Amino acid sequence: MSIVLYHHPFSRAANVVWMLEEVGVPYELRFVDLMKGTQKSAELLSLNPMGKLPILTDGDVVVTESAAIGLYLADRHSYGTLAPKADDPKRGAYLRWSLFAPSVIEPGAMAKGAGWTYKEGQAGWGAHDAMLASIESAIAGKEWVLGDSFSMADVILGGTLRFMVGFKMIEARPSFSAYMDRIGARPALVRAEAKNAAIREEHGLTRR
């Protein structure tokens, strides 16, 4: 297998397993013991100087940052299906909402939870209420972000939303819950969750 995912089931790498299941390519999961600090080993720092997961290698290619990994996998292995082609008008919305997740939702939720004080005009993630309204606009009246067609944008945006709502970092609005219910029925997500659960059991991992 040329694709290797350096993985821990309590990291963002867990959502990358779903990405891999959606594109349907063979891959290897390589467990990284976060409790022992293995992500800071010389080997992994040579792949990602941030010392964080996920890290995906595809032959000689190294990709980090979960949204970037999703976009890479979809373009390389599901171009025109999970990733709209470059000349498809939907490509703009696809990229917009894929990058909205790490650049707005994650820092916006962290800022709200930690009570950060900042000027909204100077922060890329803006106002918390505007962020929530934007998420609703992305899925309002549609099955998926791009309408009737499921895409990697739903894995990236939806995976982030599932995590944030699950840990009560974002309120569970009805539209969010309905969207997450649709996501939860994806066979690829069911397979990914089973794999993550098996690794948790194998290594005796429980959330504190």
Give a topology summary.
Blueprint: E1 3-7, H1 13-23, E2 28-31, H2 42-47, E3 55-58, E4 61-64, H3 66-77, H4 91-114, H5 128-139, H6 152-166, H7 174-184, H8 187-202
Parallel strand pairs: 1-2
Antiparallel strand pairs: 1-3, 3-4
Main traits of this protein?
4 strands, Glutathione S-transferase Yfyf (Class Pi), Chain A, domain 2, single chain, Glutaredoxin, 8% strand, alpha+beta, globular, 208 residues, 8 helices
User: Assembly state here?
Assistant: single chain
CATH architecture of the largest domain: Up-down Bundle
Q: What is the end-to-end distance? A: 34 Å
What portion of residues is helical?
Answer: 40-55%
Count of the domains? 2
Question: Would you mind describing this structure in some detail?
Answer:
- This protein has 208 residues and is α+β, with helices and mostly antiparallel strands.
- The protein has two domains: 3-81 and 189-202, Glutaredoxin (3-Layer(aba) Sandwich), CATH 3.40.30; 91-186, Glutathione S-transferase Yfyf (Class Pi), Chain A, domain 2, CATH 1.20.1050.
- Helix content is 51%, strand content 8%.
- The chain has eight helices and four strands, in the order βαβαββαααααα.
- It has helices spanning 13-23, 42-47, 66-77, 91-114, 128-139, 152-166, 174-184, 187-202; strands spanning 3-7, 28-31, 55-58, 61-64.
- Strands 2-1-3-4 form a four-stranded mixed sheet, with helices on one face.
- Strand 3 (55-58) and strand 4 form a beta hairpin.
- The longest helix has 24 residues, at 91-114.
- The two termini are 34 Å apart.
- The mean pLDDT is 96.
